[in-house]
């Protein structure tokens, strides 16, 4: 994705399921001069996601969808995204798997942040698994979304040292700080 100087920013939707700390961080980033994205929409599969409060805080439209399987449902969501002129999607703690059909419609324009050094620890409980395996390092990865879970081409990664005193919660906090630096950096890398 290339962006010419002086052109408008890419209309972006952030998909969340929970607290929305990466969402909040991306909103702040989107308001900087160098950011190539503007956040126009917050989408969630969870009506109680805490991150939805950033919608009113930052005056960004929000929409809750039931991401149930089926082309009809996908078309309903895709129609809404098109109507809102969304060019780019960032998944940020989004706990649903998008269908192959949906991903193809946004080919190469959906990215995700994952709290492990992919290809290690795809899926859930990444911090617990890193600690259980006595890993020296863990970290986070921004990657393109494909139909295979956490398997798309890696855009950027960053490492975090795992201390012997770490538990899943302390490691998660260390990695989250890195996520907040990595996600904007990865967006700048692919949209310039």
Describe the model:
Strand 4, helix 4 and strand 5 form a beta-alpha-beta unit. Helix 1 runs parallel beside helix 6. The protein has one domain: 3-Layer(aba) Sandwich (Rossmann fold). The protein has helices at residues 21-30, 53-57, 71-83, 100-105, 126-132, 168-190; strands at 10-16, 37-44, 61-64, 88-91, 110-114, 137-144, 154-161. The model has no long low-confidence stretch (mean pLDDT 95). The chain is built from six helices and seven strands. It is globular, with a radius of gyration of 16 Å. It has a seven-stranded mixed β-sheet, covered by helices on one side. It is 33% helix and 23% strand. By secondary structure, it is of the alpha/beta class.
| Distance separating the two termini | 7 Å
Strand content of the residues, in percent? 15-25%
Biggest sheet strand line-up: 3-2-1-4-5-6-7
Structural class by helix and strand composition: alpha/beta
Question: What is the count of DSSP helices, taking H or I runs of 4+ residues?
Answer: 6
Structural domain count: 1
Report helical residue fraction. 25-40%
Radius of gyration: 16 Å
| Unreliable runs | none
CATH topology: Rossmann fold
Q: Based on the structure given, which CATH architecture is correct?
A: 3-Layer(aba) Sandwich
SSE run: EHEHEHEHEHEEH
Based on Cα principal axes, name the global outline.
globular
Q: What is the H level of CATH, i.e. the homologous superfamily?
A: Formyl transferase, N-terminal domain
CATH C-level class is: Alpha Beta
Question: What integer is the average pLDDT?
Answer: 95
Q: What is the makeup of the main sheet?
A: 7 strands, mixed
Please tally the β strands and state the result. 7
């Amino acid at each position: 994705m290339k962006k010419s100087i002086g052109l408008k920013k890419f209309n972006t939707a952030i998909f969340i399921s929970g607290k929305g700390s990466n969402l909040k961080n991306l909103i702040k980033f989107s308001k900087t001069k160098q950011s190539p994205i503007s956040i126009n929409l917050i989408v969630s599969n969870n009506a109680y996601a805490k991150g939805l409060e950033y919608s009113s805080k930052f005056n960004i439209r929000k929409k809750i969808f039931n991401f149930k399987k089926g082309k009809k449902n996908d078309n309903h969501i895709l129609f809404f995204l098109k109507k809102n002129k969304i060019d780019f999607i960032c998944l940020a703690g989004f706990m649903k798997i998008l269908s192959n059909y949906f991903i193809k419609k946004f080919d190469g324009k959906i990215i995700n942040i994952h709290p492990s050094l992919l290809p290690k620890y795809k899926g859930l409980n990444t911090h617990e698994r890193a600690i259980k395996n006595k890993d020296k390092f863990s970290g986070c990865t921004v990657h393109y979304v494909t139909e295979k879970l956490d398997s798309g081409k890696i855009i950027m990664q960053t490492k975090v040292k795992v201390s012997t005193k770490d538990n899943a919660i302390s490691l998660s906090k260390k990695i989250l700080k890195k996520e907040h630096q990595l996600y904007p950096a990865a967006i700048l890398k692919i949209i310039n």
